[in-house]
Amino acid sequence: MGEEIRSSEFCPEDFAIFKAKLDQETARLAEVFAHQGFAQSHPVAGFELEAWLIDSSLRPVPRNEEFLSRFNNPLASPELASFNIEVNTEPRSLQGHVFSAMHQSLDSTWAACRDTAQAMGMDVIMCGILPSLLDEDLTLENMSCMERYRALNREVLLRRKGKPLVLDINGEEHLRVTHHDVMLESAATSFQLHTQIDQRLAARLYNASVILSAPMVALCANSPYLFGKDLWDETRIPLFEQAVAIGGYDAAAFGPIRRVTFGSGYVRESLLECFIENREHYPVLLPVNLDHNSASLPHLRLHNGTVWRWNRPLIGFDEAGEMHLRIEHRVIPSGPSILDAVANAAFYYGVVTALIHQSMAPERQLHFDRARDNFYRAAQLGLRAQVHWLDAKMYPVAELLLKTLLPLAYEGLERLGVAASDSHEYLEIIRERLQTGTNGAVWQRAFVAKHGRDMQALTAAYFQHQHGGRPVHEWTI
């Protein structure tokens, strides 16, 4: 989905041609998995950070095209809404001082973003859902000027046979709104972690990421409010799932197979299973005739970009043209601070590494249905959730994070060869967050409890603290 397309209008022949190429490229990928493989001497990390452009009133401002032109950085790109941007980092080997380097890079990029935005009379903020966002901001007039987004909107509505998208979330309060476009999706922004890994460990990493999704979303929750309503601790989860609510073929068009999904099960043998499932269960949305060399699998990669698993396998190519395999962990919201984001990354990479090297595969100990139930319970209740773990017992997720997973994070980072100073600096932020019981969602609700339901005031206080540089558990109310 990251590449621009030439047209948003398609005919039946376009779909037939694309499907034939998708079949060919899926078969080609199967050959790579079977014979060539994906060799990776050491795991490599990267991230995508989605953020908001805001005006002096702390309201979203739709000027990302002008901003990106002035910013002129190949690591920055537009998102669906013209008030959203995405910044990326260079991939880094998961060893040594990787997290302090990641921190320094993100600090530098973020400062440059602020400088550019401020020169335009704007600013930038990272937050899962911007509290000051209004429903009326999510219009087609505020869609980024790119054909791929207009094509996506058109095809989603065609698949729904013109039926409007209904957002219906029951949380602390109830929200129900109706939209005739996909712009609801742009209300959710994420901090997405990528891991490039050897094929021999990829299935284990994918399954461990699925299992870890519930603790991660509870630990990192930062999206309790949408349009002034108090909903889930991580309202991003139901918001995104309902914002692109289309399913599979024909009778399943409104059925249980969803394009934004926790998935249908663990991977058994290899990540090829996900790409086969994409071909077999998800209709083509963007049948673009790509002129690229088929060896780069352009149609397969574009199709994969229109299936939004919360843990998603990706095929990529490095600067030398070598194909690689990576996994995108999509459950973490944007914000609250750069320190929090890097600490979240350190925790994820540490725990997931420890899990994949356990003598008994975690997916053999926790049924997929329970991992999925854990995820939605944690998204709704955050650090208040109770979840099942590998011993079949149920734990308060805050206790599980502090007593079981934090030691695993240290263990996993040591196994990776991460510098002890990096492990300590960033994992201690996680420890303190858990000991104080304060993630972004908890802080936002505490602010509202003290100061009232003023979303502008909440956004102003959040913005001030974020750019103060301290982690969220140190923010005052």
What would you say this structure looks like, in words?
It is a single chain. By secondary structure, the protein is an alpha+beta fold. It has one domain: Creatine Kinase, Chain A, domain 2. The chain is 44% helix and 15% strand. It contains 14 helices and 16 strands. The strands form 5 sheets. Strands 1, 2, 3, 4, 5, 8, 13 and 14 form an 8-stranded antiparallel beta sheet that branches. A two-stranded antiparallel ribbon has the order 6-7. Strands 9-10 form a two-stranded antiparallel ribbon. Helix 5 crosses helix 9, helix 9 crosses helix 11 and helix 13 crosses helix 14 (455-466). It starts with 11 loop residues before the first helix and ends in an 11-residue tail after the last helix. The model is unreliable at 250-255 (pLDDT under 50).
List keywords for this structure.
single chain, 477 residues, alpha+beta, Creatine Kinase, Chain A, domain 2, eight-stranded antiparallel sheet, two-stranded antiparallel ribbon, 14 helices
Topology summary:
Elements: H1 12-36, E1 44-54, H2 64-71, E2 76-78, E3 84-88, E4 92-93, H3 98-119, E5 123-125, H4 147-159, E6 165-170, E7 174-179, E8 191-196, H5 199-220, E9 225-226, E10 229-230, H6 236-243, E11 260-261, H7 272-281, H8 298-304, E12 308-309, E13 311-317, E14 323-329, H9 338-356, H10 368-381, E15 386-388, E16 394-396, H11 397-416, H12 420-436, H13 440-451, H14 455-466
CATH topology: Creatine Kinase, Chain A, domain 2
Domain count: 1
- Tell me the fraction of residues in β-strands, as a range: 5-15%
Main β-sheet description = 8 strands, antiparallel
Helices, by number, come to 14
